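Troubleshooting log. The previous structure file for this entry was overwritten by mistake, so regenerating from the original sequence record. Sequence copied from the archived sheet and checked twice against the printout by T.R.
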Amino acid sequence: MSLNPVRPWRNIYRRKSRQIQVGNVPVGGDAPISVQTMTNTDTRDVAATVAQVQAAADVGADIVRVSVPDEASARALKEIVRESPVPIVADIHFHYKRGIEAAEAGAACLRINPGNIGSPDRVREVIAAARDHGCSIRIGVNAGSLERHLLEKYGEPCPDAMIESGLEHIRILQDNDFHEFKISVKASDVFMAAAAYQGLAEATDAPIHLGITEAGGLTSGTIKSAIGLGNLLWMGIGDTVRVSLSADPVEEVKVGYEILKSLGLRHRGVNIISCPSCARQGFDVIKTVEALEQRLEHIKTPMSLSIIGCVVNGPGEALMTDVGFTGGGAGAGMVYLAGAQSHKMSNDQMIDHIVEQVEKRAAEIEAGEAAPKAAE
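Regenerated output below.
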């Protein structure tokens, strides 16, 4: 829950949900909202898949999903799980046996699509495998693959059909005394997905996996996901998120974190506050921010940095950030530390200097957090 007693208009009251485990990552309840992505390598290529999982983990992915379309992929999954730094979710479609094999291979969670996994008997076999091997399950309802009887009943994919599909499959798991599950109701249509998630949130206390499926490329998909997921998260709905982009999985993780950071729901790394720049700028703001984003990717400590081109808003923004730089005249600007004006710095040296100041401040924050723990 994100609560601010000074600024109550920023408060987000998260929906109460049960908590489950995806490997060592808690999902639901009062656990932090986790960020997921999915590999797009050939799962049979263990080295390439593990490298992509590691890259996603390096930028903050809590959980990574891997497709398991055939027996060879299921065999490779065992080694991928062993080498992965984060829990692996096995993505299962059509072949229920792949779900059983993935559970045996050590997957932390099985993602099954009720519309194409097969009969209730086959789903029960997957449930038994999950229970035997300590897997959780994600029920993944998708507007593009709803069951035929629901399409006949409703005439087309719609929120009510998606919710009904999800609840039907929740009943199957519960009837088999299996409760370690989460659920998603994804659609590429933002309105449909949002309505389905809102209805689902009222109908079950299961942890909810948020996503706008097939959202598009990096720019369009980011915008669509920010609108859909941002509104749901603001309402308190959602326990884990995946941003679906036609882009590098690393970008999905970055966007997911930025959405959560903008709502105060997760804090990781440097939050850069920067102006769009104009004729008043005392330095090239756009190129500076691009360089700093790359140079500061290694910082995991939550902190803020303001990069403002001129003195109109620069000093005011700097008052609220850990480190700040405001453009001035004569090829130099002002550096702010902990909200206070500190010293001038020339524009040609300021990127290196800002990186140095951010690293120093991150070390101070980490030392301050470590001290109370050491005293316990």
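The longest helix spans residues 350-375. Archived copy saved in two places this time.
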